[in-house]
Design a protein that fits this description.
Blueprint: H1 17-20, H2 35-38, H3 43-55, H4 60-63, H5 72-75, H6 77-101, E1 105-107, E2 129-130, E3 138-139, E4 145-147, E5 157-158, H7 179-187, E6 191-195, H8 203-215, E7 230-234, E8 242-246, E9 249-253, H9 258-268
Length: 302
């Protein structure tokens, strides 16, 4: 008698995984069984994009080396340059200022007053003292001149418009003049009245000096008014607070004496080395005095 099979259940043919789309167990495929689903045309674009992302070039900015800390000189370079420029400007301004305010003359000595000689009987004393002639050379404009004595009554002087001779007027305490200018006025026969500070720089003294320049009598030989023939200016390098000067002569005064200055002008003005009665306007060419008429020849006695 034939033996029966131990497994009486018939075996049904298994469905291939490819036909059903899932494994026979009914669970999602894992491992190697899932590989066919992750390959093929659909997976190719994703892998290409991932590769492209991995191979994208890094920006150049990301490749730069980190900046090193700036030095103090670099951080404050603008401020330092500004300070240097300001210092140069200030130095240049100081140089110009000092050059403009520094005196362009020097005095070897300050002239000392001397006693006037006794006049002859019944004679009017000739005011002032005679000084040594220092010449009459023309100095270059701006050149420094050293005078043998001060205040000078002669010597080198400027010969340029508005610099020498200077305008005949009153010059206040802060109005700068140089002897190189008004010495040229003396050469033309004009008179300069000088004052020093502090005595002549007060408000009352300045007013008196201004009035003096307007009220002095006309010059003795040419009859020029004081406004056209007298300079009143500050000059500190002298032994007395006031002085009147003409070419070759000076009158020192301890106080402003209008009468003495007027007498000094009548005695000594209009007698400069250039021809008398020259045009008194500063900077104009002098007008020579007409030649003297020759005296007739002497006739022998019969």
């Amino acid at each position: 008698m034939a033996k029966q099979s131990r497994n009486p259940r018939p075996t049904s043919p298994s469905t291939p995984p490819a036909a059903s789309g899932r494994p026979a167990t009914g669970r999602p495929a894992t491992g190697a069984a899932a590989a066919p689903a992750s390959t093929g045309a659909a997976a190719a674009p994703a892998s290409t994009a991932a590769a492209a992302r991995r191979t994208r070039p890094t920006p150049a900015s990301a490749l730069r080396a980190p900046r090193s800390p700036r030095s103090p000189l670099e951080r404050y370079r603008g401020a330092i340059i500004g300070l240097v420029v300001a210092a140069v400007v200030l130095a240049g301004g100081a140089f110009v200022f000092l050059g403009a305010t520094a005196p362009t003359y020097a005095c070897a000595t300050v002239l000392a007053p001397t006693a006037a000689p006794s006049p002859a009987a019944n004679a009017t004393p000739h005011l002032g003292q005679v000084t040594r002639d220092l010449g009459r050379a023309h100095a270059e404009t701006g050149a420094r001149v050293t005078y043998e004595y001060c205040p000078p009554t002669s010597g080198s002087h400027y010969n340029a418009a508005r610099l020498g001779p200077i305008a005949t007027r009153f010059y206040g305490a802060d109005d700068r003049t140089e002897p190189q200018g008004w010495v040229h006025n003396l050469e033309h026969g004009q008179m300069s009245v000088l004052y020093r500070c502090p005595e002549g720089c007060g408000e009352t003294a300045q007013a008196a000096l201004r009035t003096l320049q307007q009220q002095l009598p006309a010059s003795p030989l040419c009859a020029f008014p004081a406004s056209a023939s007298v300079v009143v200016t500050r000059f500190d390098d002298m032994p007395t607070p006031y002085a009147a000067v003409v070419w070759g002569r000076v009158l020192f005064l301890d106080s402003l004496d209008d009468a003495a200055i007027a007498t000094f002008s009548q005695q000594s003005a209009d007698r400069g080395p250039e021809p008398q009665c020259q045009d008194a306007v500063p900077g104009a060419s002098p007008t020579a005095a007409p030649p003297a008429t020759p005296a007739p020849a002497a006739t022998p006695a019969p």
